[in-house]
């Protein structure tokens, strides 16, 4: 892994821990520590594994994994990529209106489910540093085109947090950054992003 990418991963991971644990850590301290993986859903997400092989181990992403399987997207997300996946946690799916997930998982709704899931995927490897650079270049907002053909907008929310706005105007926070995969990167988010229509 390139030195800059490793440093970005370490800093992002430790910032996440700092916010969750209410303690502070300096960038210099973060850069001096060594960590090969990020913990998501109680499991190490190994950079040597692909997006699917890591996601199936996360207790926080069982709904997402079930949806990816139902939509027939396993082979796609095991592909070469690279992909950036904005991965909603189980509680994000649970917050949808009652019955939404069950309805989407029905075989007759496979096309709708696939559209929703690919709305959470962007071509390329957009880690925190790359997203922040796009936001800065865009004057405070970066427009991202999803694999589904929709649009997401990334914005800074304070110095160390990036939010995503969907086509319906709802906003999700990235809660765990830069979970590197062999074929891209996962950014864990706290809401399901919704395309128009």
TrEMBL record:
A Pfam family of this chain: Fasciclin
Keyword flag Coiled coil: no
Signal sequence residues: 1-30
Record-linked PROSITE patterns: FAS1
Coiled-coil intervals, chain numbering: none
UniProt keyword annotations, A-Z: Signal
Domain FAS1 per the UniProt entry, residue ranges: 48-193
InterPro entries associated with the record: Adhesion/Biosynth-related, FAS1_dom_sf, FAS1_domain
SUPFAM superfamilies reported in the protein's UniProt record: FAS1 domain (SSF82153)
Gene3D superfamilies linked to this entry: FAS1 domain
Protein's name in the database: Fasciclin domain-containing protein
Organism encoding this protein: Pseudomonas shirazensis
């Amino acid at each position: 892994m390139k030195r800059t990418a490793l440093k970005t991963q370490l800093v992002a991971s430790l910032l996440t821990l700092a916010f969750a644990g209410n303690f502070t850590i300096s960038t210099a301290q973060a850069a001096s520590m060594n960590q090969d993986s990020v913990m998501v859903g109680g499991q190490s997400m190994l950079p040597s594994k692909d997006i699917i092989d890591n996601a199936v181990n996360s207790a926080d992403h069982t709904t997402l994994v079930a949806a990816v399987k139902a939509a027939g997207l396993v082979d796609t997300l095991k592909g070469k990529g690279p992909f950036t996946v904005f991965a909603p946690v189980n509680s994000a799916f649970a917050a949808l209106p009652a019955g939404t997930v069950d309805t989407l998982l029905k075989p007759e709704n496979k096309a709708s489910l696939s559209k929703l899931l690919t709305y959470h995927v962007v071509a390329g490897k957009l880690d925190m540093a790359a997203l922040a650079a796009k936001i800065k270049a865009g004057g405070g907002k970066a427009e991202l085109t999803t694999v589904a053909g929709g649009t997401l907008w990334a914005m800074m929310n304070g110095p160390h947090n990036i939010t995503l706005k969907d086509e319906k105007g709802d906003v999700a926070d990235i809660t765990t950054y830069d979970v590197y995969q062999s074929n891209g990167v996962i950014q864990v988010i706290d809401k399901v992003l919704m395309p128009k229509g």
